[in-house]
Specification:
The protein is 38% helix and 23% strand. The protein is α+β, with helices and mostly antiparallel strands. It has three helices and three strands, in the order βββααα. A three-stranded antiparallel β-sheet has the order 1-2-3, with helices on one face. The protein is elongated, with a radius of gyration of 16 Å.
């Protein structure tokens, strides 16, 4: 879910929280740019994974057994 807020400096900050990823936060000088970024990231799960590192480390059974 994306949250958009206006900063005291006049810029706009987007915070995106996707389950399994650390929160993604970016600042923009224009509100339209911030909204566009939020829509792109929320609509593209692969992009969200590239921008935020997974919280949980995936490990295979074979790696665990070794």
């Amino acid at each position: 879910m994306a949250y958009l807020r206006k900063l005291p400096s006049g810029n706009y900050q987007v915070q995106i929280r996707v389950q399994g990823l650390r929160p993604i936060s970016r600042s923009f000088s224009k509100k339209k740019d911030a909204q566009t970024f939020a829509k792109q990231v929320e609509g593209n799960a692969e992009l969200a994974h590239k921008l935020g590192q997974p919280v949980a480390i995936s490990i295979t059974f074979r790696e665990l057994a070794d």
